[in-house]
Design a protein that fits this description.
Blueprint: H1 12-15, H2 57-61, E1 111-114, E2 130-137, E3 140-143, E4 196-199, E5 208-216, H3 219-227, E6 236-238, E7 244-248, E8 253-263, E9 268-277, E10 282-288, E11 295-301, E12 314-315, H4 345-351, E13 358-361, E14 371-375, E15 383-392, E16 399-405, E17 408-413, E18 428-439, E19 442-450, E20 461-463
Antiparallel strand pairs: 1-2, 2-3, 4-7, 5-8, 6-7, 8-9, 10-14, 10-16, 11-12, 11-15, 13-14, 15-18, 16-17, 18-19, 18-20
């Protein structure tokens, strides 16, 4: 018996108005009484229930005759809405030339949601936005490539609208489906330092020979993939060859999950979907290409103060960890669940609460380990300054800093091609001012203003002094 996912309201065959009961077709019979046996060419009025092997080779390879059943509820194609000219800064490929917001000015380091497909298919079916980062400086800025997300593709007979035309499995061979991949909104949002379990048997109910899962993380994980040996990820995985995958994320953001399911007959089914991990408030992460040989420290400065760095108005390794003196800045402590699963979990548990702000991860010459500072409940319209200090080490290093607001990436600084160079021992890089927007107690967004040397409108503000 083939069961469906809880989020699949009706079967594909029910959508088209007839069931997938006992198989007919390829049987020498005129199943639909139209004087044509096992017709190849269909006519909606007379051949809607006829079966044939020719267009369903994949199903026949499994020893199954798929019913030829066009989705009769989707007779009008989606309007791709292609325009003659690009509209700037809307994250859409308006003119359908394969590029998003090309030729548009932007703020360096800013990150926006973007879609790698026709405008009319955005947020339809399986399609999910990716992200793109503004690169360059001064008057010479541009949006980089749109990465991540899920773009329109071929129908995969997986109970999803893969080509994002408003029709589910509208390929003639998709009537008998064993696969029902999760789509946008089907999976809950997860949290950092918390196990996120995905049960593959919830979307594939056939007989399985093997499972193979892999996960792609955010900007820091993609940097580690090219700069760490062996490759290290900020998240952990277990159960990659079983039906149950456990993802334990360290950082906020979107994680792209892919699974290849090999059935007993050798046929391979695949699903690709997004798992969103969101920590509350303002979260800043730091990583670098030399994490194994250097010690870089992340700093977040208190609003409404111009005190030097490394003072009580600066949250960093010396005072914002569970063992530090603690910097409250007038903010209430956070619930223990916000930090108990992290590297300092036992120390936070001993305190009985999480400080706000706090440093959850301190990376000291650890291969592939990020560092992050969190302000779970910042004050509305307050501005927090972010900096990085090169504490120790000898090589020139390329730091990368990401700013998340309400669980969504809003800025990336130091990413190629706009790397901070040179950045050497004892340097302080003043990066960005983040002004948070809080609604009903929750951070909903933030405004990011990248910082430049005094009296300059471009360039990275890097000096060896510790002034604000």
């Amino acid at each position: 018996m083939r069961t469906r996912l809880p989020w699949i309201a009706v079967l594909v065959c029910a959508l088209v108005g007839f069931g997938c009961g006992p198989k007919k077709g390829d049987d020498g019979d005129d199943d639909d009484d139209d004087a044509s046996i096992d017709a190849v060419t269909l006519d909606a009025a007379t051949d809607a229930t006829e079966l044939d092997a020719s267009p369903d080779a994949a199903a026949d390879a499994m020893g199954v005759d798929a019913r030829i059943c066009d989705d009769l509820t989707c007779t009008t194609p989606v309007d791709d809405m292609c325009a003659a000219a690009e509209v700037c800064n809307n994250g859409t490929d308006d003119n359908c030339n394969g590029m998003v917001d090309e030729g548009c000015l932007c703020t360096p380091g800013a990150v926006q949601q973007c879609f790698r497909g026709q405008p009319g298919r955005r947020n339809i079916g399986s399609c999910v936005d990716g992200q793109q980062t503004c690169t360059g400086s001064g008057e010479f800025t541009q949006w980089g490539p749109c990465n991540g997300g899920i773009a329109p593709g071929e129908e995969a007979c997986d109970s999803q609208d893969n080509n994002c035309n408003g029709c589910v499995d509208d390929d003639p061979s998709c009537c008998i489906v064993e696969l029902a991949c999760p789509g946008p909104g089907d999976l809950p949002t997860g949290a950092p330092f918390t196990n996120y379990v995905i049960d593959g048997t919830q979307f594939f109910t056939g007989d399985v020979a093997s499972w193979a899962w892999d996960v792609t993380g955010g900007p820091c994980d993609q940097l580690f993939a090219t700069s760490t040996t062996p490759v290290v990820q900020s998240f952990t995985l277990s159960g990659q060859t079983t039906s149950m995958l456990t993802l334990r994320p360290t950082l906020s953001g979107d994680y792209t999950v892919h699974v290849a399911i090999t059935a007993l007959d050798g046929f391979v089914y695949e699903c690709t979907f997004i798992v969103h991990i969101a920590g509350p408030g303002l979260r800043v992460e730091l990583c670098s290409d030399k994490s194994a040989t250097t010690d870089l420290d992340l700093h977040v400065h208190r609003p409404n103060s111009t005190a030097n760095w490394f003072t009580d108005d600066d949250c960093y390794y010396a005072n914002c960890t569970a063992n530090g003196a603690g910097r409250q800045w007038g903010l209430a402590n956070s619930m223990l669940s916000q930090c108990s699963g992290g590297p300092q979990g036992a120390a936070w548990a001993a305190l009985g609460y999480c400080r706000n702000p706090r440093l959850d991860i301190d990376s000291i010459r650890v291969n592939g380990r990020p560092e992050n500072i969190n302000v779970d409940t910042p004050t509305n319209n307050q501005t927090y300054r972010v900096a990085v200090h090169y504490f120790s080490g000898t090589p020139v290093v390329k730091p990368l800093v990401n700013v998340y607001c309400g669980g969504f990436l809003r800025g990336t600084y130091g990413a190629a091609p706009d790397v901070v160079a040179p950045f050497v021992s004892n340097d302080v890089w003043r990066i960005v001012d983040a002004t948070v927007a809080v609604t009903a107690g929750n951070v909903t967004d933030c405004t990011l203003v990248p910082l430049h040397p005094p009296n300059m409108t471009t360039g990275f503000w890097v000096t060896s002094d510790r002034t604000f």
